[in-house]
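Pinned message: reference record for Tetratricopeptide repeat protein 5-like
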Amino acid sequence: MAAGERVPSPTDKALTIVEELYNFRDHYIESHGMENAGNKETDVQNKMNESLAQLEEVKGDIKNKAQYHLLRGKILNITSKYNQEAEESLSKAVKLDPRLVEAWNHLGECYWKKEDISAAKNCFTGALNHLKNKVSLRNLSMVLRQLSGSPREKIKLIEESVERAKEAVHLDITDGTSWLILGNAYLCQFFTAGQNPKVLKQCMQAYLQAEKDSVTRGNPDLHFNRAVAYQYQEEFQKALDGYWTASQLDPSWSEATTKETELVHYLSDCQTLTESKGKIKAKKLDTFIKQLVDRDLPQYKTVQSTNLTGQHVSLSHCKLLELQPKVNEGKIIVGKVVCTVNSSNPVPFTCCIVDEDQTCMCVTIYNLSLGAGMKIGDLLAIPEPVFNQIKISHKGKEISFSGIRVDAPRLLVVNGRKLGINKEALPVLSVSNVSE
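Predicted structure (tokens):
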């Protein structure tokens, strides 16, 4: 040691032990590679045990017992699973020194893992009473979204969740974890408070900022939750890539793999059923086509309708092959439902329609109340349809089909009658908190 250099105190040594442990966990993927992600949990556990042993070696020399119990609790709280010893050590720390904000934060995380949401909220709120800090704010943001209440109360809680996450970001705009939690808060707000496109855009911008942080980039939650958003936007290639990345970062997390597999099956079924016209028998298909060209359907040739803004618009009939990418303003398509597409996820309701030229396309209908879906043989008219050509390449599998998206089912006309607003219901979304 150089002359004049300060000799590290026992507390300094203990702080270094804990810091090295958390750096090992947070930068594991960077140092070990994604191919070794499956070993992370075991390696972190081993490092935790090693750190505990090192802490015990200097325990007797640490005079501040509140600090010792905080450091011991932090070590035990390193994994994603609840640890009773961690809770006990952190509880001792806050009793010995109620001003230890870091101890309150880790104790709150213990309660969170224990699924004691109320106790976790009290810890984070208590910490903020001592000091405004990003960890308490972003953890409180998560907790608020988990509290129960009426639909109106839930909206207010999620709005508050967004505000707390914003505050955390403002305290440190370089912290990717805070950006991730803000993105998750926006995603929840989007699905519970009217699906404002601006909110979804803010969500994706927050995720983009989160990915700039090397630590957060290795968090499977980022890739999973963003994939959920991509799937809703029907950016299926990005969604599949996201689920795959999440599963690689945490091979023990079965939900990510399940979502990836289910989405591939769903998209494959969409392709197969559009290519086979719903696998409907030729005689029945001929009947449907005859009904479509029958003279009794003049009301679909030129239509006066009301759009979502309340404006009256004139719509002219358009064949499926004449559709242009994105919104086809001033057009209306008409087809017979030839099949529905089964999916483990009820959102969206998916069916296939054929028009008079026997062109078949997939229709995805969002925000449709349960049980309000179309049946085979129904005559479906879609004003100002949103057209998209789906192309997927995933793990050697190529999928391609034409799709039509409907976000406002109230404007659909089924068998000559408009569905109406009573057939609409916002989808329920579950944002992952596996490693937040």
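Pinned by admin. Summary line: The CA atoms of residues 223 and 245 lie 7 Å apart.
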